[in-house]
Amino acid sequence: MDRFLVGSEYANHLTDADLGLLASVAAEDAGPAVDASALRSDPAALLRLLEHPGAFRAVLGGPGEAVPASPFLVFAVAVQRAAAELASAGHVPERTGPRQRVPLFDAPALRDFLAEPARRLFLAELLGSFTRVASGRYRARVGGRMRTRRFSELDPVRLAGLLEAVPEAERPGVYRRLGDVTLFLTGVFPDYVTSRAFGPVDAGRLLRAAGLPGPQRERLAAGPAIEMLEHLGARWYRIACELAPVRTARLAVAGDVADRFRQARRVLNHLADRYLLAEGQPWFSAPGS
C-alpha cells in the first residue's frame, strides 16, 4: 500500500475536528498556513502532518487539557510516537508475567515493523475497531439439534464458534477478526492472556479452528498461552487472505502483519504500557471486567 493510499485511508477515518488539530501542527513551524478542509483531499500532506513530532502534542495536549480528538486520531498519533521512541531505543521491556518485565534487545525489529506507513495505519485501525466490541447470539447445530450460542469479539474461543455457523463466503471475515482479537489481546492485555492460560478444552477448540495437525496442536497447547496465540493469530490472518475471493490492498497488509505478528504484538505492548492503559485514563477495559 503506497503512501498516497495510506493517507487516503487515514482521511476516511478522521473527523473535521481531527483535521483542524492536524492543521494547527503546521503553524508550530511558522510555515505556510494549512487549510484543514483541504487535507481530506491531500493524502500526502495529511500523512506528513500525522508523522510530524508536533502531532502528538497537538492531539493529546498538556496535562488536564481536553482537545476534540477522535479515538482513532489518538491511536494514530500514539503509534507515530511509538515509532519515534523506538527509533533510539536500545531495548524494550518484555512481559514475562503479571507486573514482571525483562529487557529484550529487539528494538531494531520493532523499528523495521513501524517503518512501513501501512503497518502503522493497520495498528491504529485495529485499536479503533475495539473501542466498541460486537457481541450477540447465533444458532448452530449441535448434536443434531439447533442451539443458541453467544459470541463476543473479545472472546476468541466463542468467536471461533462462528466458523461452524456462517456461510462459507463469510468465513474469511471471521478468520480476519480472529486474527485481530488475538493481536489485540496479546498486545494490549498480555497479563490477562498469561493469567488466563487457556485450559485444554478452550485451547483445543482454538487449535482445531486453525486446522492444525494433531502433533502441532499438542505442542502449542503445552506451551505458553502467548506463544500459542501468536501462532494462531498469524495463521488466522493467512487463512483470511487465502480464502478471500479478492485480495485487497488492506487484506494484503494483514498478510504482511501475519509474517511479523510478534513484532506487531510487541509494539502494542509498548503502546499499552505508555499510553493505552494509563492510570486514570485507560482507553480499554480488561476483558471480563
Would you write up a description of this structure?
The chain has 289 residues and is mainly alpha-helical. Helices cover 61% and strands 9% of the residues. The protein has 16 helices and four strands. The chain has helices spanning 3-13, 16-28, 36-39, 43-51, 53-60, 71-86, 107-114, 117-129, 156-161, 171-188, 190-196, 200-209, 214-222, 225-243, 249-258, 261-276, and strands at residues 92-97, 100-104, 135-142, 145-152. The strands form two sheets. It has a two-stranded antiparallel ribbon. Helix 6 packs across helix 7, helix 6 (71-86) crosses helix 8 (117-129) and helix 10 runs antiparallel to helix 14 (225-243).
Number of helices: 16
Helical percent range? 55-70%
Spans of at least 5 consecutive residues whose pLDDT stays below 50 are: none
Q: Please state the average pLDDT score.
A: 87
Kindly report how far apart the N and C termini lie. 37 Å
**Structural class given helices, strands, pairing?**
mainly alpha
Largest sheet: 2 strands, antiparallel
Number of strands: 4
Per the principal axes of the C-alpha atoms, what is the gross shape?
A: globular
Instruction: Please trace the helix and strand order, writing H or E for each element.
Output: HHHHHHEEHHEEHHHHHHHH
Strand content: 5-15%
Biggest sheet, spatial arrangement of strands: 1-2
Indicate the radius of gyration in whole angstroms: 20 Å
